[in-house]
Specification:
691 residues, alpha+beta, four-stranded antiparallel sheet, 24 helices, elongated
């Protein structure tokens, strides 16, 4: 027994299914395992063979065996790839296996519905403007397959054109619901994707940050909301984006303290709170009014971590963001997709005016028998400079006065890392200098800790925002003084001041750092003014997409509604929705032909009716509901003697009309009948005018 796919599922549908299958599965290649990709490839190749008539449908036993083997493999590796990734792979395999064994139209409908689900699943992880447009095109293809099931045409583009029209007609309603409906939080927790994490880690060794300087990936973008309407932020030397605070050091690696890690783990159920300062001026007797409060929006790229970015001291009104006791911002969920959150920073406030004994002891602790030379140097500073403030200043000057060098490729160090760096190599990166300062300060009796984050930003004057890249990763120190709290000290500013004042590019060659391993990065365009202009234009469009679509929070919604309605009220919103629904419904009804407007009448019907009207004027009226063939017989009976050529032409015209309207024709047959109909129509129109 052989399956005749052509009579059950049209070749037009099979053709579009081949294209749609690749279009839907290709964006999910990062989540798919090699086993899943292999099975999908086998299914696709086999389906191509079926379409070309080279192979028969696979036996059900083979499909069942592949399904059981795939499910078993996923169950074994689910702990490694994560529960959500395992579920995604299971859905991908179900889609591919159903695709290869389909035999009836109902199978096509099931594949299309699963395709929509996979498109939505992809959109959860890929929400950039280009990815959204790509997935919109995939949705058009998938809808075209569904249309071909109900409205099969020999012209392959016809179903796709109709699908595009349906999608475009649905956009106004989607935009209305997007603007008016309240932003709802997720109703459930998403399982861990087990995706590779990017950016800074909660552990730092000497070489970790220097590895990030070889990455041209975007970390986050920032748009400042200044009271005067300008978009410029603070000077580059003030752009210290706080990300992680590390207080434990074992002689090789800096880590977060277990107490803060415990708070992070419990943050979702027991949100930590920091009080925003009521009187910023109290921190500074003569504050600069423009620096009292800084408002900005951060758009974080997916890092699959939970830590966020902010200037000191940062607070956010976002429900998914909490403020930790070490003055960091922390997300309640991993940042698995672009995340937009509003921040207000108070740069003049005192951080940690009081320091409890446990925290003080933690930030004075040093590993035993570690770096004895550096420890001795710290004790010497304590002896020479009894005042803590003068002591830290002397340590900072020590780096500038000695022959130290700032490099992205520092020499290797031994077991006594800081000793080797300070007294032997004398060359290092920001992590080397920050670690050395913390160690010396603690040895001298001053509480000090390590802070990692990003420093600086690339300003886009076209759209008025800053881009912060992974290569801008940085480490600095915080020193605690009685009555002054935690104060930032960055020894990098003593060794390579241009790195802090003017940015990374002012110190290092991009080609030998972050562009060395990124041959296709758009940052290569920075060397050419007109290409850099083009790069910033494209980046601006993507930024606006992130702000107004991905970052369309309740505050922005109220701004849009205020411009549309003035004073926003529930009554006005309800009226806006009702009026919009009515307009959208009327437009759809108009295009669906419910108003019987002749403007969009079928040209074939229009020409046939015109000939019938002219015959009516000759005294041969077509009765209501009379079939075209019956009317042709009536015309032939009246005109066979008076105008035999007109009778013969009208009979041939009617035959062509019936064939085009009601008979299944191939593409070549359709073209022949259309050409014949047009010729007869022109001939009859002239003859009926003369007779």
């Amino acid at each position: 027994m052989t399956d005749n796919f052509d009579t059950i599922i049209s070749r037009n549908t099979l053709f579009w299914l081949l294209i749609t299958n690749v279009a839907i599965l290709s964006p999910l290649h990062q989540q798919a395992t090699l086993w899943s990709i292999g099975i999908c490839a086998i299914c696709f190749v086999w389906r191509v063979g079926i379409f070309l008539g080279k192979v028969a449908a696979p036996p059900k036993l083979l499909v069942t065996t592949l399904a059981i083997g795939a499910a078993t493999t996923l169950a074994l590796v689910s702990s490694e790839i994560g529960l959500l990734n395992a579920l995604v792979n299971l859905l991908i395999l179900g889609y591919a296996l159903k695709y290869i064994e389909m035999r009836e139209l109902r199978d096509v409908k099931a594949i299309v519905l699963v395709g929509y689900f996979l498109i939505g699943l992809t959109l959860l992880d890929q929400q950039s403007m280009l990815n959204t447009l790509h997935l919109l095109a995939v949705a058009v293809l998938n809808t075209g397959v569904l249309i071909s099931v109900y409205q099969d045409k020999s012209n392959k583009v016809a179903n796709l054109s109709f699908s595009l029209k349906i999608i475009l007609q649905s956009l106004p309603l989607a935009i209305l619901l997007f603007v008016v409906f309240p932003r709802l939080g997720p109703l459930w927790l998403v399982p861990n994707m087990k995706t590779a994490k990017t950016g800074l880690s909660d552990e730092m060794s000497f070489g970790d940050i220097s590895k990030l300087t070889r990455s041209a990936e975007l970390a986050f973008r920032v748009g400042f909301d200044n009271p005067d309407g300008s978009t410029l932020g603070p000077a580059n030397q003030d752009l210290y984006w706080r990300t992680l605070v590390m207080e434990n050091y074992d002689g090789k690696t800096w880590r977060q303290d277990p107490s803060i890690q415990q708070i992070q783990r419990q943050a979702y159920f027991n949100k930590p709170m920091r009080q925003a300062p009521n009187n910023v001026a109290s921190a500074n007797p003569n504050p600069n009014p423009s620096s009292k409060k800084i408002d900005y929006v951060v758009i974080s790229e997916p890092s699959h971590q939970k830590w966020l970015y902010g200037l000191d001291e940062a607070f956010s009104s976002n429900d998914q963001v909490v403020e930790l006791a070490d003055y960091r911002l922390y997300s309640l969920r991993p940042v698995d997709q672009r995340m937009s959150y509003r921040v207000t920073s108070y740069p003049d406030t005192i951080m940690g005016l009081k320091l409890d004994s446990n925290t003080q002891q933690l930030n004075l602790a040093l590993p035993a028998n570690s770096n004895p030379k550096t420890r001795k140097l710290g004790l010497q500073f304590a002896k020479d400079y009894p005042d803590p403030q003068a002591r830290i200043n002397a340590m900072m000057n020590y780096f500038a006065e000695q022959a130290y060098y700032y490099t992205l490729s520092p020499p290797s160090v031994g077991e006594q890392q800081i000793d080797d760096f300070l007294f032997e190599n004398r060359a290092g990166f920001c992590a080397h200098y920050a670690s050395a300062l913390v160690f010396m300060a603690r040895a001298s009796g001053i509480p000090t800790r390590m802070v990692t984050g990003y420093q600086g930003g690339d300003y886009n004057a076209k759209a008025g925002y800053y881009s912060v890249y992974q290569y801008m990763a940085h480490a600095w120190t915080e020193v605690w003084f009685e009555g002054q709290g935690w104060q930032r000290f960055d020894p990098t500013a003593m060794i390579a001041p241009q790195r802090v004042l003017d940015g990374f590019d002012a110190t290092f060659d991009s080609q030998s750092s972050y562009l060395q391993d990124s041959p296709f990065s758009t940052l290569h365009m920075k060397q050419y003014p007109w290409l850099n202009e083009l790069r910033q234009q494209f980046a601006s469009v993507d930024y606006y997409w992130s702000v107004w679509v991905l970052g369309f929070d309740e505050q922005r919604k109220q701004q849009v509604l205020a411009k549309l309605l003035g004073d926003v009220s529930s009554t006005k919103i309800a009226l806006l929705m009702i009026v919009s629904f009515i307009i959208i419904a009327l437009v759809i009804a108009y295009y669906a032909g419910l108003f019987n407007v002749d403007r969009h009448q079928d040209p074939l019907n229009k020409r046939y009716q015109l000939i019938c009207q002219r015959l009516t004027k000759k005294g041969i009226a077509r009765q209501q509901g009379q079939a075209a063939s019956d009317y042709a017989a009536a015309v032939n009976a009246h005109l066979s003697a008076l105008a035999p050529q007109v009778a013969a032409d009208f009979t041939a015209l009617s035959d062509a009309y019936v064939a085009l309207k009601y008979q299944p024709l191939s593409e070549s047959q359709t073209q022949q009948q259309q050409q014949r109909f047009r010729q007869l129509y022109r001939r009859l129109r002239l003859r009926l005018l003369r007779n």
